Amino acid sequence: MAHLSYPNESAAYREARNALLEAEIELRAHSEKVAAMRRALPPGGAVPEDYVFERIGEYGMPEQVRMSELFHPHDTLILYSFMYGPEKPLPCPGCTHLLDGMNGAGRHVEQRASLYIVAKSPLARLVEWARIRGWDHLRMLSTAGNSYTSDYFGDTSRLSPAMRSAHGIGDGKDWDETIYNVFRREDGRTIRHFWGSEMTYAASEPGQHHRSGDAANPLWGLLDMTPEGRGSFFPKVWYD
User: Fold this and answer.
1) Residue range 28-73, pLDDT digits in tens
2) What share of the chain in percent tops pLDDT 70?
3) Please, are residues 70 and 114 in contact by the beta-carbon 8 Å criterion?
4) Using omega within 30 degrees of 0 as the cis cutoff, is the peptide bond preceding 161 cis?
5) CA-wise closest residue to 215 among 202, 224, 207
């Protein structure tokens, strides 16, 4: 295979880089295989109810909206569960940096699918945080008053006893979690769950944060290109 040659590189560097390139090509092929497996999933379960959320309406005022109304004009809906409940003084820094990066993609995603960010906090609090962060292309939904977050594992309240034990969740203790859920509307009526980022709840490799949302996270992709890698770095909400 033909390859590049950078100024003053050594033969040892090129040999190692070519081997890495082969591995990168294999990873690309495997990523495409996994994406094809995802697209080929059989129909998921129908949603148990037409959840009612709160959002900012067309004229800038809060309004109630049903899940079935969120799809327009598409048949695919992506909901990202944002760890920012009413009890939190600040939102999760991991979610926040992810949404900082996702904001730029929002205008493009909307050409193919509907995208909303959901959290338990009151709508006014979510909208104000989006304003502070400059999230001009992300639409916020409050789940206050519905069971969406627990039904679709945006928190730990409905994990099985075995999973609660594996994650060290004691009796009476629960917390929010980051998770993507994708829904598909069939025949303009039936809404089915298509896919969720279940790796959120999979055991992490030793010394690693979980990798459930990496495919949509530009920060980790950029740091993985560097000599230092990610290391133990984890983003903050604010930097001095």
Assistant:
1) 999 999 999 999 999 999 999 999 999 999 899 999 999 999 999 9
2) 100
3) yes
4) no
5) 224
Rounded Cα distance between 214 and 173, Å, is: 27
Domains of the chain with bracketed CATH: 52-200 (3.40.30.10)
User: pLDDT band at 2, cuts 50/70/90?
Assistant: confident
Cα 177 to the chain's mean position, in Å? 10
Task: Confirm whether pTM is higher than 0.85.
Answer: yes
- Using alpha carbons, list the distances in angstroms from residue 177 to 13, 70, 100, 150, 206: 42, 22, 18, 10, 20
Residue 154 one-letter amino acid: G
Radius of gyration of the chain measured on its C-alpha atoms: 20
Question: What residue spans of 91-230 are helical by DSSP H?
Answer: 93-109, 123-133, 148-151, 161-166, 218-223
